[in-house]
Amino acid sequence: MGDELPDESVLPEDFIESPSDLTLPVVQLPGEDQLPGPPQRDQGDANQAEAADAFLNRVVDPRLQGLGLDKSPDQQPWLRIQADGPVSPLRSIAFTADGKRLCAGGEDKALWIWNQPAANQPWQLQKTAYWPIQRGERGVVNTLAVTSESNLVAVAGSGAWASNGDIFLFDATTGDLQNVLFDDKIGHRQTIVAMAFSPEAANPTLVSVDGEGKIIAWKQGQADGLWRATLVRNTDDATFPNQDTLPTLLRDWRGYNPLAMVDADTIIHAEFDRLNSLKYPIWKIVRTRISDRSSTDLAGPNIRHVAMVTTIAISPDRSQLFTADAAKLSYMWNLKNKSVSKIRANLPPAISSAFSSKGRHLVVGTTTGPHGKSQLELYDVNKPGGPLATMSTHQEVRTCDIHPDGQQVAFAQGNSIQLASLGDSLKSQTTLYSA
User: Fold this and answer.
1) Helix, strand, or coil (residue 46)
2) In angstroms, rounded to a whole number, what is the distance separating the alpha carbons of residues 313 and 96?
3) pLDDT tens string 321-374
4) What is the CATH number of domain 8-18+49-57+89-312+325-343?
5) pTM
6) With the CA atoms of 5, 9, 14 and 19 taken in that order, what torsion angle do they form, in degrees rounded to the nearest 10?
């Protein structure tokens, strides 16, 4: 079914250049008289090792660079910049279901909401929602998720302390905080890296995953309105109790860890399969049921992702799935006839993606390629082959989303947001916000 996973000898020499949640520890080299001889391995392994090391060595987590300010006196709030847009790189953007608002979050630990009063009118900054005050200047918004019908937006990442895995629910219409999701027994204790809502119009399920691989499903009670947590997948430490070094290794490759929801009981996500000869993780794409925690491989053993799965997107009708990784492997899945094919050959690694509301178009954002270029790509999912159009960008496209009307795509480069018209091409690029 579909294409086979390539041999390690043909893996690319460059992995993506984008932050994840952890950096490798500093290792002291032994004296020269203790240096071993050159390792015996083939050139393919050497290329993969060089690429993976280059990727991890440039990882920078803004949580680790805070100034560590002392707590302010009681009742004395900290001063903060009142800007007219993001002041740090964005990590997630999403249109609301009605298309009237665009939400964005990133490394300045704020939710930015823009409003378009009517079609063809300029977008205006409506509100900036900050995380609770006096929790420290460290923190980052990694992920946003919006419901398919209402204007509820979930915001998560890491707060002043990385052990806090809180999820904040905002009303995008007003920008008001509605709820905070946390469970003291099974809740997240680490940075949340991805979330997704199920497609139901009423009372959707929210799923979240953290940097240790824990997946939690959240559901609001019909009678009391309280959100309750269900553990879907435990941490890597609990999942692999007899493999001391594996959980630590996997954390280095869970910087994105994306997922998608098919329905209120079904999640699609990446699950660890094995390590290759150089101890880099190989991932399978699985379908997991919340109700019984059972998982099914979506494809045979030849369809796998390497090192880090960077993006997963599902079409609104739940018939198409797109997945990609740091090793330039990208797959298009037909969930109805259970087929999968490889796409995007010889292109920079994809790190963001989104389907149009009718499922015809797919947009893909890339990291910086070997020549210092990154791009936004447009695909017709019904036409095999390369992209319909590409647009060069000056920075990596960490996040993107297509407007519900299918006429424009929003994408972020650093802390700026661009809008491009969408048809059978990408054109008329305008700037919604740029510092």
Assistant:
1) helix
2) 16
3) 999 999 999 999 999 999 999 999 888 999 999 999 999 999 999 998 777 889
4) 2.130.10.10
5) 0.83
6) 60
